[in-house]
Task: inverse folding
């Protein structure tokens, strides 16, 4: 079955074809580690991880690369502002690298709690400075860069395609709009490749370069590291929608100027998680983390379930009520799982059930292959779970398949414990009579007694060696 994905580049849902099947190369812009990832960031990573799982389900092998921004990355998407790492280090009275590692660890702890796999390659910006310098040097040699007041800038006027991803004219793009315009730029959309001087002083992390001691602009890390780990052409590049107009335009300009050809085939962007007050943002502060949710009594998997109830290309609104509903739904689902596990123990599927299961799985997969339609996949899942016409063993097998893609920790749910039957003298007497009837091969009497026991809420299962198991009905 083919996978279809909405491609920001073509502005339509396209059939996905990798350049070198069965390999899929996928790059995702990773976290800035000067603070915890907020649950909005995590929504984006949840869908990126899901995309990896869906591609694997379709038979592909995925090389998933994610960067960790542990240097620079300024307050605005443009080139002005404060060094966020330094601000965090001062706030928490720690060294910048200590801050970076602490938040990176927290990030991967959170993503693991959400059942997200660690990407194939996780690359830190600070460990790839030479790759970035080489990349910038090449842009300079090819005439795409200029030096102004000590900084190296990308000259967007030299890249006619600039703005095509977001459908904007280069002239309309004013990246310094939210802050003061950088007077060193030739064009408003130009951006810094390498800083040796900037508005803020005391940048702690600095490296020697052909242009003097300084540090890279934010955008260059993704171009340099993606090329290093995934080669000259990439099948899929992901990120939140906020990255389309600046960060991803800049990545395209740098990479295509450097490579001399088209770079990314599919651009896949995740819509935002908002709260009732509006957009959740890291730099604004006051955001929710996974730990905050846990303090409020919700587990990470409840948040993941909540995310899957909306499509990744629609924005979602976070609320306590929506989280409570997700928690309830998930608990209900894991109750079903526990009951199916108990009931299906030791049972195998008949050939008819196996054939039917195939159909169920294909229909479920179809919703995910169609641009990750998780709300439809979940509602289909529920229709199967609640179908009492299907055996527990078949529904269990189906849910294990669902869990193999959505990673909702269902496979870890313990089977429902069988309730102990309290054997009253009346029940004991009936059991003894049943034993005698069976010994006398009086099946009619044995059945009659079984009915009397059932009326008392007790089921009897005959085991080998004349043993019996009592079941609470
Ligand atoms: P950052 O650490 O700020 O660079 O963001 C990490 C990822 O989360 C990026 O792909 C962003 O586009 C994405 N992102 C940021 N804010 C939100 C939000 N409120 N909802 C969903 N994704 C977001
Ligand atoms: Zn990036």
Result:
């Amino acid at each position: 079955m083919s996978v279809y994905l909405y491609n920001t580049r073509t502005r339509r849902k396209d059939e996905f074809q990798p350049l070198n099947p069965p390999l899929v190369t996928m790059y995702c812009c990773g976290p800035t580690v000067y603070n915890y990832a907020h649950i909005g960031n995590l929504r984006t990573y949840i869908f990126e991880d899901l995309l990896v799982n869906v591609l694997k389900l379709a038979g592909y092998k995925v090389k998933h690369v994610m960067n960790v921004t542990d240097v620079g990355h300024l307050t605005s998407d443009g080139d002005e502002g404060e060094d966020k790492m330094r601000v965090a280090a001062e706030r928490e009275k720690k060294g910048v690298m200590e801050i970076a590692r602490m938040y990176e660890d927290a990030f991967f702890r959170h993503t693991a709690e959400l059942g997200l796999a660690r990407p194939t390659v996780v690359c830190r910006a600070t460990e790839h400075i030479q790759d970035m310098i080489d990349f910038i040097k090449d842009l300079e040699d090819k005439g795409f860069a200029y030096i102004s007041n000590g900084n190296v800038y990308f000259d967007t006027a030299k890249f006619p395609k600039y703005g095509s991803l977001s459908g904007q004219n280069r002239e309309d793009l004013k990246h310094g709009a939210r802050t003061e315009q950088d007077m060193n730029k030739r064009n408003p959309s130009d951006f810094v490749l390498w800083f040796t001087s900037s508005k803020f002083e005391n940048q702690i992390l600095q490296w020697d370069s052909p242009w003097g001691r300084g540090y890279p602009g934010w955008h260059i890390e993704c171009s340099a590291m993606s090329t290093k780990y995934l080669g000259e052409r990439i099948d899929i590049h992901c990120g939140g929608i906020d990255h389309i107009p600046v960060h991803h335009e800049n990545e395209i300009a740098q990479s295509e100027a450097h490579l001399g050809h088209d770079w990314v085939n599919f651009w896949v962007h995740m819509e935002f998680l908002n709260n009732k007050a509006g957009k959740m943002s890291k730099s604004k502060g006051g955001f929710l983390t996974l730990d905050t949710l846990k303090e409020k009594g919700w587990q990470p998997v409840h948040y993941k379930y909540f995310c899957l109830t909306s499509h990744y290309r629609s924005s979602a609104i976070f609320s306590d009520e929506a989280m409570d509903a997700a928690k309830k739904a998930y608990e209900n689902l894991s109750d079903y799982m526990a009951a199916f596990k108990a009931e299906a123990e030791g049972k195998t599927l008949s050939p008819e059930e196996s054939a039917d299961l195939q159909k169920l799985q294909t229909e479920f997969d179809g919703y995910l292959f169609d641009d990750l339609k998780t709300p439809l996949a979940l509602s289909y899942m529920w229709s199967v779970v609640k179908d009492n016409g299907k055996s527990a063993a078949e529904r269990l097998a189906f849910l294990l398949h669902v869990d193999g893609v959505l990673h909702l920790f269902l496979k870890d749910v313990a089977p429902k414990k069988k309730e102990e039957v309290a054997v009253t003298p009346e029940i004991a007497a009936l059991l003894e009579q049943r034993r005698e009837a069976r010994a006398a091969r009086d099946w009619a009497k044995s059945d009659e007694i079984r009915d009397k026991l059932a009326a008392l809420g007790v089921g009897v299962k005959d085991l080998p060696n004349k043993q019996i198991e009592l079941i609470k009905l």
About this structure: The pocket of zinc ion (ligand 2) is lined by residues 29, 222, 247, 251 (CB under 6 Å). Residues 75-79 have pLDDT under 50 and may be disordered.
